[in-house]
Amino acid sequence: MNDGYLRKVFPAGTEIFRSGDLGNCAYIIDEGEVEIGIPLNAHQTIHNRLGPGELFGEMALIDDHKRIGSARAVSDTVMRVITSNQILDRLHHSDQVIAFILRITLMRYRHLLQQMRRAEESAAKESAAEKSGALGDPAKDQVATDHLAMPDSRDAVAKLELENELREGLDKGELRVHFQPLVALSDRRLVGFEALLRWENPRSGFMPPGAFIPLAEETGLIVPICRWVLGAAAGFLARFQEASGRPARDEGRLVVAVNVTKHQIDDSETMQILDRIASEHGIAPEQMKLELTEGVLMNDYARTRGWISDLKGRRIKISIDDFGTGYSSLGYLHQFEVDEIKIDRSFVIEMLTEPRSMEIVRAIIGLARGLGLTTVAEGIENQEQATLLRAAGCDCGQGYYFAKPLAEAEILARLQAGAFGFGP
Ligand code: C2E
Ligand code: CA
Ligand code: CA
Questions:
Q1: What separation in Å is there between the alpha carbon of 343 and the centre of ligand 3?
Q2: pLDDT (0 to 100) of residue 240
Q3: Class for domain 174-417, per CATH?
Q4: Residue 400 in contact with ligand 1 by CB distance below 6 A
Q5: Ligand 1 site-directed mutation target among 196, 213, 228, most atoms within 8 Å of CB
Q6: Superfamily of domain 6-90
Q7: The pTM is what?
Q8: Nearest residue by C-alpha to atom 2 in ligand 1
Q9: What is the average pLDDT score of the chain?
Q10: Sign of the torsion formed by the C-alpha atoms of 94, 95, 101 and 107
Q11: Candidate from 121-125, 203-207, 266-270, 322-326 with smallest mean pLDDT
């Protein structure tokens, strides 16, 4: 059996650990029997026998303190050894609230045992003092418990509160999608929008996605949130298309790009939603574009490839977001049926001052062209960047120079007024 844990054999009668030893591992008994002794006071010890499947020494996993009790193999015993490093590594990657609850529970248990022991000791001292007529020094009797300070619960509690607020916020309609225009660099024509999530949190005010998406990912709330974003983005796109007065075909067709995470690839409802929303809102599947980062693409290679293939079968477009920041190999590019590369903002920022960044931008555009993909540059903040990118052959641009992400009412108003000009 190989489950990654070391196995140790203790012959009958072996002492596994003693009270006061430094502990850095726990044990699960596979075979045999172990006797645990937990001293209550100088004279009394609680004895307990444990058999296969049972765990002991677990407190050392969390705080590396000295062993309170002792353990001895009653018969020949085989045990799995779990080191504190193995547990701390798992705790580090686990939900913060679960880790917090585990730490607190073990600490309370340790605290309780210490208090019981102290009560027993002072009772014994009192009766001895009574007999001799001497008075003890209470300060001296105080057992140092500083090292038992509780872990800070504020982070975990704040996180729980935010999670509940977000859950409620989703139900109460506090989430919003803002839309940032995507502009054709050749003629500064509006070609579509990227849908960007916002949260109007009544307690903390307006929140950008960076402030709550990581929590949503951790808690699984990202799934219902992203389902909602897809529907909202499609619904608004239909209204934008109508307000633009353009025919919803060829050059006149607006697209909406939606960010997706690996959770959407795992969510079987994503495809059904995509099928439903396109027909519900009367938009063509080609008007929907999904943005995936390189990390998402490579997360579960075979699955993502199949998923993208299903999207292509539906004529939905795929874009690689933050290109150049996530994955060091380009070998994956031809393996996925993607349509577009989004050049990351970091290259666009450095392009003007750092010749090598300009070369990287040119190389990305050349690579995309060679593979028959279009390019979008993110984070264009000035005219010079827009001009250089156009000269380098980049198809589209997005950034504060053209427009910041805007609420749908503003997009509608501008479209109706025919005021979506991006000309220099
Ligand atoms: P992203 O997909 O790279 O989105 C572009 C971000 O760059 C947006 O930030 C946008 O406001 C910002 N940006 C655009 N142009 C400029 C510019 O010229 N200068 C500067 N400094 N920034 C610019 P935002 O809206 O805060 O979104 C941050 C990230 O949150 C997004 O990065 C995306 O990864 C994630 N996100 C946003 N909405 C959603 C969503 O609906 N679903 C998922 N899964 N992720 C989302
Ligand atoms: Ca994006
Ligand atoms: Ca991006």
A1: 8
A2: 97
A3: alpha beta
A4: yes
A5: 196
A6: Jelly Rolls (2.60.120.10)
A7: 0.72
A8: 259
A9: 87
A10: positive
A11: 121-125
